[in-house]
Amino acid sequence: MKKSALGILAAGTALLTPLAASAQTEIQFWHAFTGRLGELVAAQVEDFNASQDTYTVTATHKGNYSETLNAGIAAFRAGEQPHVLMVFEVGTATMMAAGGAVRPVYQVMEDSGAAFDPDAYIGAVKGYYTTTDGQMLSLPFNSSTPVLWVNRDRLEGAGIDPDVDLTTWNQVEEVLDQLAEAGEECPLVTAWQSWIHLENLSAYHDVPFASQENGFAGTDTELMLNGEVQVAHISKMGEWADEGKFIYTGRRNEGGANFRSGECALFTESSAGYAGIKAEAEFDFDVRPLPYWEGAGNAPQNTIIGGASLWVMEGHEAEDYAGVGEFLSYLSSTPVQAQWHQDTGYLPITAAAGEATREAGFYDENPGTDVAVTQMTRNEPTANSKGIRLGSFDQIRGIIDEELEGVWAGDKSAQEALDSAKERGDQLLRRFERAAN
Amino acid sequence: MEKRVTFKGWVLPLLLIAPQAIISAVFFFYPAGQAVWQSLFIPDPFGLSKQFVGLENFQYLLSDPYYRASFVTTAIFSGLVTLCSMVPALFLAVLADRLIKGAGTYRTLLIWPYAVAPAVAGVLWLFMFNTRVGVVSWYLGQLGYDWNHVLNDGEAMGLVVIASSWGRISYNFLFFFAALQAVPKSIIEAAAIDGAHFWRRFFTIVLPLLSPTTFFLLVVNVVYSFFETFGVIHTITGGGPQQATTILVYKVFSDGFVGQDLGSSSAQSVILLLVVGALTVLQFKVLEKRVHY
C-alpha cells in the first residue's frame, strides 16, 4: 500500500522533473558549515552555478562534522548518498577504508577531464589526503593549523615586553612564570588539546604519533604518543596546570571565550580562530608560530592541518562525475581559493592562491595572517609530519581527552596517562583493522 | 465470582489490539531484534562487509575495565536521579495538596519544567554553572568555593544529576499530586481526631496509600535515568571529566556514532536491554509485594 503510493509519487516526479527544471544535472553537496562559513559556501556554490549551465550544485547543511559524516554513512546505506560529502580530517581513515563507497578524487578528475594539476596543491595540506604514492583521495577544503595567539595588553600589564620572543616553549615558560608572579589568573589556555599538544607537537618535533607512518602505510598501526617528547611536554603542561599557569577549560574550543574576552595572556588555537578573535577582541593581539621545545626531536619541522576535505561518493551516473570534477576544479581555482583564504583564515590549498593573496597586499594589511602558511610550509613534510590517519580517530581523541584530564586534575602522571591512552586507543585500532579488512 | 466480558468472534479483538501490536513490533521488536543480530558481527560503517564473530563483542566489552566501571557510574547516577526527582516531587505535592488559595497557579508553575527537552535543560544548567560566566558558580566563588565541573568529577556528576532530575520533578509531582487527591479524607480526619499530627498521619496513612504510585514512578524513573538522560550528559559533560559521567547509554552513542563501531554499540544495547529488563523484573518481584493496591 505504502510502497505503491510511493511508487506513484516517484513516477509522478520523474514525469514532472524534465518539465519543471531545465535539463541540468544536479550535484548534491553535503557540508557542515553554518553562520558566516555557511554563507561563504553558499556564495561559492551560487557562483559556480552561475558560471556554467550544465550542472547545478545543491549545497545542504547536515549538522556538525560528526553529524555530517554520520548522515553520509546512513545515506549510503540507504542508497541516497550525495555526490560530494564534507568529512573532517579525523574521518579520513574511515572514508579510505570504505573502498566501495568512495571514488578517489584523482580518478574523478582524470575521468572528467577538468583542469587538475596535483602539483599545484600545497604539500603539507594535500599530504593529509593523499596515498603514500601521492594520489589525491579527497580534495582539501578548509584547512587550518595551530598557532599561538598573544594578548599584548596582558603581557604589558604584567610588565613584560609584548614583543618578547615566544619561539620556544622554554621561552614561553619564562613568560608564564612572570605572568603568574604578576598575579595573572589565566596565563595560558588552549583549544583542541589532543590536536595541538599531541598530534601537532609530534609532527612539529618530527616524532611519530603512531606507527606505520602515522597510519598512512596501513591499518596495522599502533599509537606511539607516549614517547619521550610527548611525555615531557604533557608533564610540563601538568605542572603548569597545577601551578595555575595553564587553565583547562574543556575538550573543544571553550578556551576561545576566555581569550577573546581578554582574560588570558596566551592561547594555543587554530589559525582559523582569526575571524572570531578579530571581531571580538577589544585588546591588542598578535599571532605567533606555535612554540616548540629547543633541542627536542627535529623541531621545528612543520605542523599539520585540521579541518575537512571533500569526498566523492560512489553510486552515481558517469555524467554526474564530470560535473563533480568541474566543481572541484572550480573550488581549487586561484581566485576562489585566495578569496576563501582571506575571508576565513583557513589556509590556501594551492601555492598560487597564497601568492595571489600576498600580491594583493593582504598579509601586509593584516599582519600575522601568513604565520600559519609559513609554519606549514617551512619544511617538506616527513613521514611523521605528513598527517595522521587512524581508524576510530574521533573516539581515540575522546580517550586522549579523558586521559589528559587525569593529568590536569593531578590524578595521573603524564607517563601513566599517555601509556593508558595508547593501550585503550590500540584496542580501537585493532577493531577498526578487523572491520576494514 | 468474577464477571468476564467475552467477544463472540476473533476479528474485533484482533482489530482492537492490532494498533498496539503493530507499533510494538515496528518500533520495538524489530529494532531490538536488529540490535541482537548486529551484536554478533563486526561490520564496516558503510555496510559494505561484515564478519560474524559470535559473542566476541560481548567478551570484548566485559573484559574492558572502563566498560565495567561504567556500570558503577550508571548505578550511582540513576540512583541519585531517581532519588532527587522523587523526593522533592512528593514533598511539593504534599504542600500543593494543602493549598487552598492559588493551587492552580502553583501547580502550573511546577509542571512547566517538564516541557523543557533534556538537551535544552542541560544547556540551561550548564550556563548557570559555567565556570567562567555562570551565575551560580559566581555566587559560589563569592562564598569562597571554586566550582569547576570541567575537572572535578564529583561536581560534574552533581551537575548532571541536578539537570536530569529537574524536569523530572514536574512529571513525578503530577502523579503524586493526583494520588494524594485520591486519599480518602475520612481516614485522615479520623486519625486527626485520634490526635495523630500531620507527619504521623503522612507516614502511617498517606505514604502506604501512595505505594502503587510510588512503585510505578520508581520503575519509570529508573528507566528514564538509564535512557533519556543522554541529552543532558551530551550537552553538559560529554561523559567527562575522564569517565566520571560516562553512563552506559552514553557509551552506546559514543561507540556507535563517534567510533562508527556498530558491533560494539549493538552489543551494548543488548546488555543495556538485559540490565533494565532484569532490574524491572527484580522491582516487580521484590517491591511489588509491599505495594497495596
TrEMBL record, chain A:
Pfam families to which the protein is assigned, alphabetical: SBP_bac_8
GO cellular component term of the entry, any: periplasmic space
SUPFAM superfamilies listed in its UniProt record: Periplasmic binding protein-like II
Subunit architecture: The complex is composed of two ATP-binding proteins (UgpC), two transmembrane proteins (UgpA and UgpE) and a solute-binding protein (UgpB).
Similarity comment: family membership: Belongs to the bacterial solute-binding protein 1 family.
Annotated function: Part of the ABC transporter complex UgpBAEC involved in sn-glycerol-3-phosphate (G3P) import. Binds G3P.
PANTHER family recorded: ARABINOSE-BINDING PROTEIN-RELATED (PTHR43649), SN-GLYCEROL-3-PHOSPHATE-BINDING PERIPLASMIC PROTEIN UGPB (PTHR43649:SF31)
UniProt-recorded name of the protein: sn-glycerol-3-phosphate-binding periplasmic protein UgpB
TrEMBL record, chain B:
Pfam family of the protein (one): BPD_transp_1
UniProt cross-references to CDD domains, sorted A to Z: TM_PBP2 (cd06261)
Quaternary structure, from the entry: The complex is composed of two ATP-binding proteins (UgpC), two transmembrane proteins (UgpA and UgpE) and a solute-binding protein (UgpB).
InterPro entries named in the record: MetI-like (IPR000515), MetI-like_sf (IPR035906), UgpAE/MalFG_permease (IPR050809)
GO cellular component terms listed in the entry, alphabetical order: plasma membrane
TM spans (from-to): 12-30, 71-96, 108-128, 156-180, 201-227, 267-287
Key word Transmembrane present: yes
Cellular compartments annotated: Cell inner membrane; Cell membrane
Domain of life: Bacteria
Name of this protein: sn-glycerol-3-phosphate transport system permease protein UgpA
Single GO BP term: transmembrane transport
Keywords (A to Z) from UniProt: Cell inner membrane, Cell membrane, Membrane, Sugar transport, Transmembrane, Transmembrane helix, Transport
